[in-house]
From TrEMBL:
Keywords: Carbohydrate metabolism, Isomerase, Magnesium, Metal-binding, Phosphoprotein. Transmembrane segments: none annotated. Its cofactor is Mg(2+). Its EC number is 5.4.2.6. It comes from Adhaeribacter aerolatus. It catalyses: beta-D-glucose 1-phosphate = beta-D-glucose 6-phosphate. It comes from the Bacteria. This is Beta-phosphoglucomutase. Belongs to the HAD-like hydrolase superfamily. CbbY/CbbZ/Gph/YieH family.
């Protein structure tokens, strides 16, 4: 399905990916994965290979690299939580919202826009971000790795978020930083704003649902997509 949005498209809901989109933390995920995959599991991957493989649920990352069935469910859970423990320990001193996001969330809420999180992260990490930054009340729905069968680029995460908000996919705009996330939004029939925290524009060349590339939430385009308050 190809979304077709005019320039004056005004969404009723915003669905935010979390890592790399609300916070600039993808380097810390890559570092934690690099250690687990190479030092603990002897995968012998380069830094760039880790970055390419690092999308979707933690179990999906392990399946892609080692093949399905290499680890038991209990082992996947333990590796997944251990990876996030290492990530949280290293990233916590740097934890903060991207520039302009605090104001953008306030403005969107005042404009009556519904907001959701649609992330491949496990609840342990989503709670770490939302509760340490005190931003949970902004979101009417949260879809985590544990809420879907297949993560991004499958559209399930974003479709579920729209359903929980009670809105059609075409009424939602997704905020993403990763090519596989933009692909998931496209598969869900949703337009996307791309945060260029972790990827270059060129990495998104094949997608047709991108409204705009922004460095952070101070970009004036983001005011244009909120309805004008009277
Ligand atoms: O979907 P989000 O919020 O960008 O999260 C993606 C990341 O979430 C992390 O928890 C996973 O370990 C990563 O593999 C994944 O890339």
């Amino acid at each position: 399905m190809q979304p077709n949005f005019s320039m004056n498209f005004s969404p009723q809901a915003l669905i935010f990916d979390l890592n790399g989109t609300m916070i600039d933390d993808m380097h810390f995920h890559a570092k934690a994965w690099y250690q687990i995959l190479n030092d603990d599991l002897n995968a012998a991957l380069t830094w760039d290979e880790v970055k390419v493989q690092m999308y979707g649920k933690n179990g999906e990352v392990l399946d892609r690299i080692f093949g399905k069935g290499r680890f038991s469910e209990a082992e996947v859970l333990e590796l997944s939580v251990e990876k996030e423990r290492r990530y949280q320990k290293e990233y916590f001193p740097h934890l903060k919202l991207l520039p302009g996001l605090a104001d953008f969330l306030d403005n969107a809420r005042q404009a009556g826009i519904k907001m959701a999180i649609g992330s491949a992260a496990i609840p342990f990490n989503i709670d770490f971000v939302l509760d340490n930054l005190n931003i949970r009340p902004y979101f009417q729905a949260i879809v985590s790795a544990d809420d879907v069968t297949d993560s991004k680029p499958d559209p399930e995460t974003f479709l579920k978020a729209a359903e929980l908000l009670g809105l059609a996919p075409s009424a939602c705009v997704v905020f993403e930083d990763a090519p596989k996330g933009v692909e998931a939004a496209q598969n869900a029939g949703m337009a996307c704003v791309v945060l260029t925290t972790a990827h270059e524009k060129e990495d998104f060349g094949k997608y047709t649902n991108i409204l705009r590339f922004v460095k952070d939430y101070t970009d004036s385009f983001l005011q244009e997509i909120l309805p004008v308050r009277v």
